[in-house]
Amino acid sequence: MGLEVVVKDVLERGEAEVNRIRQEGTVEANAIIAGAENTARQLLDEKREQAVELIERRRNRGISSANLEVKRAILNAKKELLDKVYDEAVGVLTSLPESERETIIKKLLESQTDSTRVFSNTNDESLVKRISGLEYGGTIPCSGGIMLENEDGSVIRDLTFDTLLKSVREKSLKQLRELLSV
């Protein structure tokens, strides 16, 4: 009988040891699983946050790009409108009656100080010669207005309609660009 008791005692201790090891293993496995689940949740949260940030950056880039395209389209439309107004203004100025062209050219001649020669287009040649006390220097290709020159030809004041209108158009385009920040 002694042997049976010893065997039973060894088996009970072995079983107790197995249960203890099993219990420690279960606790350790549960801790590992919980740690892995926690790490997985953190990784998932980080990836989700990165994805949201990436989507937001792409959306903002898209919005900025669309805003820029709208500004460009507006600028182009306004430029086309300015070009059309410029062309129409040239048309109106070239078709003015002589009395109105005379009034304009007189105003332009008032700005001359040390000029000795005046130039005009072919249509206004006789008018300029008649109302100007300056030497007539010849005809120039322009839609109207005058060009003034001093005695030695070193100073030329371009007061032609073309130049005056281009100056106004350039100022307007510059203002448009500044307004649109393009």
Tell me the Rg in angstroms. 46 Å
**CATH homologous group name of the domain at 97-180:** ATP synthase, E subunit, C-terminal
For the residues shown, what is the average pLDDT?
85
**Number of DSSP strand runs:** 4
Write a short abstract of this structure.
With 182 residues, the chain is an alpha+beta fold.
Please specify the SSE layout and strand pairing.
Layout: H1 2-94, H2 98-110, E1 115-120, H3 125-131, E2 135-139, E3 145-150, E4 156-160, H4 161-180
Parallel strand pairs: 1-2
Antiparallel strand pairs: 1-3, 3-4
Helix pairs in contact: 1-4
Annotation keywords:
about 180 residues, alpha+beta, about 75% helix, 4 helices, single chain, 4 strands, hypothetical protein PF0899 fold
Task: Explain the overall architecture.
There is one protein chain. α1 runs antiparallel to α4 (161-180). This protein has helices at 2-94, 98-110, 125-131, 161-180; strands spanning 115-120, 135-139, 145-150, 156-160. 12% of the residues are buried. With 182 residues, the protein is an alpha+beta fold. It has a domain at 97-180: 2-Layer Sandwich (hypothetical protein PF0899 fold). The protein contains 4 helices and 4 strands, in the order ααβαβββα. A 4-stranded mixed β-sheet has the order 2-1-3-4. The mean pLDDT is 85. It is rod-shaped, with a radius of gyration of 46 Å.
